[in-house]
Amino acid sequence: MSSGYKSWILLTGFILFYVAYLLLGALVFSTIERPVEDKLKSDIQVLKEEFLNQSCVNATSLENFLEKVLQANKYGISILPNSSASSNWDFASSLFFANTLVTTVGYGHTTPLSDTGKAFSIFYALLGVPFTMLVLTACVQRLMHPVTYGPISMCRQRIGLDPLTATAFHFAILLLLVVLGFFVVPAVVFSHIEDTWSFLDAIYFCFITLCTIGLGDYVPGEKPGQKFRSLYKISVMVYLFLGLMIMYLVLRAFHRMADLHGLTSFFQLPHCDEDTEEDKEPIIEAGPEDQHEAEASAKPLDPASQTSYNTINR
Amino acid sequence: MSSGYKSWILLTGFILFYVAYLLLGALVFSTIERPVEDKLKSDIQVLKEEFLNQSCVNATSLENFLEKVLQANKYGISILPNSSASSNWDFASSLFFANTLVTTVGYGHTTPLSDTGKAFSIFYALLGVPFTMLVLTACVQRLMHPVTYGPISMCRQRIGLDPLTATAFHFAILLLLVVLGFFVVPAVVFSHIEDTWSFLDAIYFCFITLCTIGLGDYVPGEKPGQKFRSLYKISVMVYLFLGLMIMYLVLRAFHRMADLHGLTSFFQLPHCDEDTEEDKEPIIEAGPEDQHEAEASAKPLDPASQTSYNTINR
Predict the structure, then answer these.
(1) ipTM of this predicted complex?
(2) Which domains does chain A possess?
């Protein structure tokens, strides 16, 4: 079996296993948290009725009541009637939670209520966070050629740019496309779907999400009576995964550019790692002279650049 | 000036500039958000008085009131009297917010209320997140020798272990020390300081924080009347920075071990990057034979390992 074929099978296996891991996580979170949520929901409704039935409302009774309401709200349980229909721990929401956990976004609009849920969150993230990094790295590794090396090599051949200018020019174009495709366009879509979000709110959401900060003040699909809620949540998950992949790709392209421009040497930081032969395969298909050019552009003065490709065979 | 000396001056400069960046961010966030918070706080108090003064409380009026209370609570403004004294946007809290933003932890227990605050958050994180990564990488780069290469080399010399066993043994010890020093001990401290936190809650907080998930269901120093609140918040920030550094160090040590055991080659992922000559300096001080040993242990069968150190001079 050729190395390229094996590599794609491996990647597909990774992604399928990753999806299975998310589904399993969703199932467990839903099973653990749903009964606790139902209990807390009915408790809070009883509390509300008791509060409404009392003869006089004074400051102390109101504050006691509000304290419990705010406590329940912290766990994502609202006392308002229009939001009591949807659960935070149905399958789609649990899947969304599992996804925000392993990607380290962690909005925190819903958090585990039970000790079992908290312990499982630790265990799940302990495996899930490195696994997500592995899947993202594997995907980016395979995208580096068509998105970075290929276009840079083309810039040099067609426009006749020198390696440094070609890399900088390519990075500027890549950044522009990413800002448009992963920030501006999604922000337009979100601000249309979510009634209460302005365009700034939506851009702020996209940015806070794709940096994995995940403040959680804006979370899609949380308004009461959201149409196609499950489908919407899953689409946001896909956006999140693709967005994180592209952010990582931009970061690697930037790292490579910083290497070429001597910034990493100046700051004495680790260099962007050489890629395996796998990445070079499409260049070989395009013609052997491209490969030498790409290698030359990658490390113009590096005597080790040829030999280091062999290290994958050790 | 020697390269080692220059390197330490550079690192000190980085850290000082980083602290200045955090202080500046805190100042701006506090200036922008404080007036908005005060306005919302007084609005919610007026609302509470109006609610208490009405003759009869029915379900509709209660729900309208609760909707506004929950909305304010989303922005970290509580209607409860004991929590109204402390601000979410005093200098220490703003500094803490700025820190959780640039480290991508993002608890979201306080979020910007104004459009100016949201726009500034984007701008601040846009520069701050890569800057934090740069500072962490620079610190880890300088810690890799005393924490990783040095002890591995010592294991090989003193106990006579082979490179693979020495690396695995060192990683196991490192992991144990990190779990004790950055999870168990801090969890004991947090569960003592925070009255409502169990030991599991505290471990869960440490884990969710150092993975940068930051759900925000547990945030230290948020209880009303917290003693030495500012000092406590700053201590948590130091814990966060050191913790992230050590997590990154563990990740690099793991990456290196995975390289040696052929895992990165198997999954066709980028190899752990070679370190600059800077890292090797303490080895040179210890004796030149150690250096060769360390290099041999790093890449036992890699013909490029010697030449690749020269790449920092290009």
Answers:
(1) 0.83
(2) 1-78 (no CATH), 87-268 (1.10.287.70)
